[in-house]
Amino acid sequence: MSQFAHYQPGEYAQEHIRITPTTLSDGREFFYLDDEPDYVCGKKTRQLVDPRDLPYRFAPHLDADGNDVPYAAPQMRRDPLTGDWIPMATARMNRPITIGPGATATGNPLAARKPGDPYQDGEVPDTDYDVVVFENRFPSMVQVPGVPNETVDVDGSPLWLQRPASGRCEVICFDPNEHGLPADLPVERLRTVVEAWAFRTAELSAIDGLEQVYVFENHGQEIGVSLAHPHGQIYAYPFIAPKLEQELKHTEAYHERTGGNLLADIMRAEIDAGERVIMRNGSWVAYVPAAARWPLEVQVQPLRDVRTLDELNDQERWDLAQMYSQLLKRGNMFFDTGDGKGMDLPYIAAWHQAPVHDPRGEHYRLNLQFFSFRRAANKIKYLAGSESGMAAWVSDTTPELIAQRFHELGAVDLD
Fold this sequence. Notes:
alpha+beta, EC 2.7.7.12, nucleotidyltransferase, HIT family, subunit A, GalP_UDPtransf1, about 425 residues, zinc
């Protein structure tokens, strides 16, 4: 396995996963994570040359008058009412879409390369892969060489501040089968995905200027997914995102008041209450939070105090793959469509990790927040005036009813 400055593979990854780095033709970083034995032992090797002739990603371009125009680094502005930084990523308007009525792409850029296929703008150089990770071609945040990370006023007013959105956006493809579902992947493949999460968390956390590593998965057209291929993303923010900032305020205040860890105490209280616990194994517990907002919502925590994904040990990574597999399968069966087959559930899986530098992270704890917009087999929960306008949630069900439905779908104990 290639040596990396900050990622330290455990015993399983050293023996069963091979990470091969390369660079795409426009300069973006790309990584193969192989779990197939022939690639792990080196009997087979990956295609490392991107056959596309793409211009350097930060190269200037010509305007309508034939003049060189520098690469337009994405910017972000600070909302003075909330303190939130808002990245403004105009380049994303040109990204390919392969799903829904607004589809623009003639092929799937996340699929393995198909020699002879009319579509030859895929991001994967090889004709097959296990798991791959690469920098997003249409990032909402990116560190541009030579662009100083300076804060300036907008329109000459100190009310509005602007600086480069100098983060990083990556894509993780879970499997080469572009028509597959994450819920159908074998646990062994999800174990490789978990390793990819840990690998990228460790490496991204060491990049200057990044404050939070956010691993997440959007799944389903209703969520707004533009590419149907089974994949996830990683955003490395140059700030602490508003949701995590709110959680840090509460976890820090709780620690100052009680000396305890709020997330750990919530987990223990849910275990003691029992009613909302839906799954557990030797390393993890999953429960419906007592104040759940969404019609389907689950929080997953490790039993051991762990702050970030790269701190998980081998057994915890295996147990996570097992639980995540069951969570996706049971999520797909949650709503009864009348034929006993369930549905392809639209969901968001959001990993909340301790921030990179903020000292409040010492009293934080790794957790997964898994939720769906769907409130019935044929209905979506729309965020209307109260939720969107005031962030004042109105739930369409109760946490106990959500947990009861999960209890109908499978045993709590996975061991």
